[in-house]
Specification:
The chain is of the alpha+beta class and about 100 residues long. The chain has helices at about 1-5, 25-40, 65-70; strands at about 10-15, 20-25, 55, 75, 80-85, 85. It has one domain (about 1-80). Strand 3 (about 55), helix 3 and strand 4 (about 75) form a beta-alpha-beta unit.
Length: about 100
């Protein structure tokens, strides 16, 4: 699986154990997802698409191809966005960890 990961084109391509995170324009991520699905199938690996998650920064209309490739994908809200357990947005921080200017 390492060679599959190394060949992906997404600007953010972080892999750890059985987790992979990709971030880029929707078309680039879709091409990478296509590559991963194809290469995984070629070696007999079946990916659990129900565990795939998607966070849209902008232009949700551009994601049709990703939704087509991964019909069971879950769309995340800003408060749910984590990478390997680390919050990636202010909304994902625990309430006590919010910067003073973000507290109600």
């Amino acid at each position: 699986m390492t060679s599959i990961i190394e060949d992906l084109k997404s600007r953010i391509n972080a892999a750890y154990l059985d987790n992979e995170s990709l971030a880029d324009e929707a078309a680039v991520v879709a091409a990478d997802v296509t590559e991963v699905l194809s290469e995984a199938a070629a070696i007999g690996l079946e990916l659990n698409q129900a565990k795939f998650e998607l966070y849209v920064l902008d232009n949700p209309e551009a994601l049709a191809e990703i939704y087509h490739l991964l019909p069971g994908i879950q769309t995340l809200e800003p408060s749910e966005l984590h990478l390997l357990g680390a919050p990636l947005t202010v909304e994902a921080l625990p309430a006590g960890d919010l910067p003073t200017d973000y507290r109600s």
